[in-house]
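step=predict obj=Basal-body rod modification protein FlgD n=223
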Amino acid sequence: MTISTVNSAATTTTSSSTSSTQQASLGISSSDFLSLMVEQLMNQNPLDPTDTDSYLDKLVSYASYDTQVSISEDLQNVVDNITTTLAANGIGYVGMTVEAKGSTNTLEDGAASWNYTLNSNAESVKIKVLNESGVVVYSETGSTSAGAHSFTWDGVTSSGEQMADGGTYTIQIDATDSDGDDVDGFTTVIGVVTGVDYSGGEAVLNIGDAEVAIDNILSVHTS
């Protein structure tokens, strides 16, 4: 199984039912209150009349509540629009650690991290790290069981040379079963989003010098 360089991200949107929840918890609207007030006044005890000042205070409170609900709905719409816009243009991902389908990552602070997933058990797994020229600079055997596995490279080549931070490297997984047939799977890259590139007409996230397409992001975490 050989994985080509594909990096990407997913977006999420947030919605709220604040006003409907508030309405449900209250149980009645200001219109309902007016009807109850008129009914109360019509059936009040003449010897013990209802305090109209108290009713007026409550009426003002209910009118204010309706206004607050309307404002709350408008504010929530603004928040939803901002959240959607930030996710769509990629700015909201800057500074966050993401995992995205792909195979190319940047060596930062002496480490580059990937995950690889096997769809079934393998007999043999070989992990290879390739430099920007496609030359294998490091290799080791990997876990053969079906499922997800993590791999972090410390930037030291098979010959013992420590590579400098900032370079981009691609992971390649060669997995075969007991019959020598390829085992299917995929790789993901993990890193902190450092910027957004719009030069290609679409927002592409940067993890160091590596690029991640927004549509391929699998998970997002605050750093």
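step=describe
DSSP finds three helices and twelve strands in the chain.
step=end
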